[in-house]
């Protein structure tokens, strides 16, 4: 862990993936951003649809590179390059998105494939070896919305989003503390229920940074 001044602000990357302005996902993202900023932390907030992030992985981005000298930061796509350059400076990550067919929206899937690149988010000692995570962000918070009841999601579908984020994606980059909460079912939720959920999102955001606020240390890498 890296020592910092007690109470020093953290840089948190916040990634929203929902195409409709005014969605409950937007409200969740706004609540998280406001809570973190109120606590004095820096929030690098990205509405991926509004930014026009291109999720399409290009052929030249899949070329084999020398595992010992991987450097994926450079890109002719200026938005992609900016995301890649920012990512290693972050102390924590927050993802807000709906559950669509057991997957994140395509824009966020493409973001993961293009931004969490070799030399940016991880490095391989050998082409077939175990990855070494490169991110200093040791914790991540994933907030999902869903219209599938919890028991059906778990028993019939196996909760694929949990596997995606907590097993397949984030640990590969060095993020080992993955917290995830699902708000359901959204379509028939009352205004009171949604207000309660927004309060819960704020509490989860506060918990994400609480260790640093108590000890003055950055989150584990």
Overview of the molecule:
The protein is α/β, with parallel strands linked by helices and 221 residues long. The protein has helices spanning 24-38, 48-51, 78-86, 106-115, 150-157, 160-169, 191-215, and strands spanning 11-16, 42-47, 92-98, 122-124, 131-133, 139-146, 177-184. Strands 2-1-3-6-7 form a five-stranded parallel beta sheet, sandwiched between helices. Strands 4-5 form a two-stranded antiparallel ribbon. Strand 4 (122-124) and strand 5 (131-133) form a beta hairpin. The protein is globular and about 50 Å long. The termini are close together. Residues 1-6 and 214-221 have low confidence and may be disordered.
| Structural class computed from helices and strand pairing | alpha/beta
Strand order within the widest beta sheet = 2-1-3-6-7
What's the number of helices?
A: 7
* Helix and strand run: EHEHHEHEEEHHEH
What fraction of the residues are assigned to beta strands by DSSP? Answer: 15-25%
Shape annotation: globular
Q: Describe the largest sheet.
A: 5 strands, parallel
- Average pLDDT reading: 86
Radius of gyration: 17 Å
> Unreliable segments (pLDDT under 50, ≥5 consecutive)?
1-6, 214-221
Helical amount: 25-40%
- Total strands: the figure is 7
How far the N terminus sits from the C terminus, by CA atoms, comes to 6 Å
